[in-house]
Amino acid sequence: MAVIYNFSAGPGVLPEPVLREVQAEFLSYKQGVSIVEMSHRSDTFATIVEQLEARLRRLMQIPDDYAVLFLQGGATLQFSMVPMNLRESGRFVYLDSGIWSKKAIADAKHYGDVVVAGSSAAVKYRDLPAWPKTISDVDYLHVTLNNTIEGTRYTELPDTGVPIVADVSSNILAEAIDVKRYGLLYAGAQKNIGPAGLTLVIIRRDLIVDRDLPSYLAYSKHVDTLLNTPSTFNLYVAERVLAWVEGEGGVEAMERRNVEKSGLFYDALDASPLFHAVVSGKQRSLTNIPFTTGDAETDRAFQRFAEARGLIELGGHRSVGGLRASLYNAMPLEGVKRLIDVMHEFEQEGQD
Ligand code: PLP
């Protein structure tokens, strides 16, 4: 069978050895019981969760004064849980750097006054709003560190007097993130960590306050315990994916590979007579790369051409169109080389 390369932005490609391992263990994880039939309170399952957390702490160098929470509801539920839980003055600052941050802003408005300190909406989010020069008297500053749809990323953080909250759904474990510079990080797992249905929250413990909130929505109810039945299968797969990441050399190795893969692809786009990258300069994402021929019909023709050659999920997000290649940790360099070859083939013969 021909090799398939999956460039999906999410759920994204997972390491094949992990998928094989999961398949092999699925019917009988222990004594004839499948992992999806096992109590989340059993010793066996508790060990999986402990190992998952330990691996994440090692990989991201998470300090002890941060709690790790394994939740559900996607990154989208964090758009609400963050303002609900961090609300003191009821004033929040947001950077509007893309469609996901716009959604985060819309949800935060239910819980307080949102100050949008910068927006690149006017340039269709092709670059990033600058960090605000000064901020005070607000509960936090929210940023989407990697903009999955638009393909931009922040590489520098300002020194602010307020906690920085970052949505790291599409760059967690793909590049180094200096956890101690943030008050809170959150990510849907379905790009670099495992199947959809698990959300990670890494929060500095002093920001966890007991609030009068429905139990599931309060961070304080999830700290150092499983409040309810978690997405057990997802936790199990995530633990295996993190074992793979550690085995491959950790986040440093992932970042090095992602720099190499994305660099190769950006170079090919910059040299192409037909395709070009949508984002320029050092704001370019390592993981999500939107590109286009400048013509919607030709973009669609290329997508079909690539699909016929085993390169799938190259369509841009439905809200922006064009093309996009997501190069998460499990995408091998060979996949990027193959994509570049197919682009060359299309440039030469595919346009009639
Ligand atoms: N934030 C970012 C940066 C994303 O890329 C996504 C999904 O792709 C989301 C939020 C929404 O995540 P979820 O579907 O897990 O709610």
From TrEMBL:
<comment type="pathway">
    <text>Amino-acid biosynthesis; L-serine biosynthesis; L-serine from 3-phospho-D-glycerate: step 2/3.</text>
</comment>
<feature type="domain" description="Aminotransferase class V">
    <location>
        <begin position="4"/>
        <end position="339"/>
    </location>
</feature>
<keyword id="KW-0663">Pyridoxal phosphate</keyword>
<dbReference type="Pfam" id="PF00266">
    <property type="entry name" value="Aminotran_5"/>
</dbReference>
<feature type="modified residue" description="N6-(pyridoxal phosphate)lysine">
    <location>
        <position position="191"/>
    </location>
</feature>
<feature type="binding site">
    <location>
        <begin position="75"/>
        <end position="76"/>
    </location>
    <ligand>
        <name>pyridoxal 5'-phosphate</name>
    </ligand>
</feature>
<comment type="subunit">
    <text>Homodimer.</text>
</comment>
<protein>
    <recommendedName>
        <fullName>Phosphoserine aminotransferase</fullName>
        <ecNumber>2.6.1.52</ecNumber>
    </recommendedName>
</protein>
<feature type="binding site">
    <location>
        <position position="148"/>
    </location>
    <ligand>
        <name>pyridoxal 5'-phosphate</name>
    </ligand>
</feature>
<feature type="binding site">
    <location>
        <position position="41"/>
    </location>
    <ligand>
        <name>L-glutamate</name>
    </ligand>
</feature>
<feature type="binding site">
    <location>
        <position position="190"/>
    </location>
    <ligand>
        <name>pyridoxal 5'-phosphate</name>
    </ligand>
</feature>
<dbReference type="GO" id="GO:0004648">
    <property type="term" value="F:O-phospho-L-serine:2-oxoglutarate aminotransferase activity"/>
</dbReference>
<feature type="binding site">
    <location>
        <position position="100"/>
    </location>
    <ligand>
        <name>pyridoxal 5'-phosphate</name>
    </ligand>
</feature>
<comment type="similarity">
    <text>Belongs to the class-V pyridoxal-phosphate-dependent aminotransferase family. SerC subfamily.</text>
</comment>
<feature type="binding site">
    <location>
        <position position="167"/>
    </location>
    <ligand>
        <name>pyridoxal 5'-phosphate</name>
    </ligand>
</feature>
<keyword id="KW-0032">Aminotransferase</keyword>
<dbReference type="InterPro" id="IPR000192">
    <property type="entry name" value="Aminotrans_V_dom"/>
</dbReference>
<dbReference type="InterPro" id="IPR015421">
    <property type="entry name" value="PyrdxlP-dep_Trfase_major"/>
</dbReference>
<dbReference type="InterPro" id="IPR015424">
    <property type="entry name" value="PyrdxlP-dep_Trfase"/>
</dbReference>
<keyword id="KW-0808">Transferase</keyword>
<keyword id="KW-0963">Cytoplasm</keyword>
<dbReference type="InterPro" id="IPR022278">
    <property type="entry name" value="Pser_aminoTfrase"/>
</dbReference>
<dbReference type="InterPro" id="IPR020578">
    <property type="entry name" value="Aminotrans_V_PyrdxlP_BS"/>
</dbReference>
<comment type="function">
    <text>Catalyzes the reversible conversion of 3-phosphohydroxypyruvate to phosphoserine and of 3-hydroxy-2-oxo-4-phosphonooxybutanoate to phosphohydroxythreonine.</text>
</comment>
<feature type="binding site">
    <location>
        <begin position="228"/>
        <end position="229"/>
    </location>
    <ligand>
        <name>pyridoxal 5'-phosphate</name>
    </ligand>
</feature>
<keyword id="KW-0718">Serine biosynthesis</keyword>
<keyword id="KW-0028">Amino-acid biosynthesis</keyword>
<dbReference type="InterPro" id="IPR015422">
    <property type="entry name" value="PyrdxlP-dep_Trfase_small"/>
</dbReference>
